[in-house]
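From the shared-data thread, chain only:
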Amino acid sequence: MAARRQRHTLKPISPESLEGVEIANPSAGKIKTATVHHSCHPVVWLPAHAMEVIWEPKGYNEEDASRVSLVMRPGAGEVAELDALDSWFVAYLTKNSDRLLGAAHTEEQVKQKYQSCLKRSERYGEQVRAKMNLRGFGKASFWDCDNKPTEAPEEFRGSTVQVQIHVKGIYIGKEVGPILEVTDVKMVDGAEKVEVACPFGEEWFASEMARVM
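Structure, as tokens:
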């Protein structure tokens, strides 16, 4: 298996872990994108807890899409971390609005355009949404409960998963928001039974075991 690139890990998302994270100049086009990086390295988020998959992953107007949206139900800790990430994006975009948005914006103007990846619904509660590639370039890696490579499940809905998420960048158009992409998925039986997954490291495993013991 190929070695993983050096990366900057947000574990947890906090002002301290976000220090040094930057957004590159946007691409050209009607809908622009800009890469998030830390000293040219990818930025990834490792949620501390497993999350339930709410719906079957779907692509945009495609039944058998290779790039889909994975929608999960976050716990209180993950909600707090995503709120912190949103606050960082709004502050960074406000400070760098001339370069990234094409004109100076106040914080309130940025907030009016900003679309969080954390959705809140009275009916469905809080949801975190991230893209995931099932085939081709950038295909997500799947891991079983023994930390061994496996294939994507036939059905996702109702599964409990531990994920690694690439904070890939932002899109810029009439609206602006983060681009999150799932790179690794570990299939687990329950949120309280999570063991270490191959990309997630011994430090996370030790802290999780201390939490549940």
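Confidence is low (pLDDT under 50) at residues 190-197.
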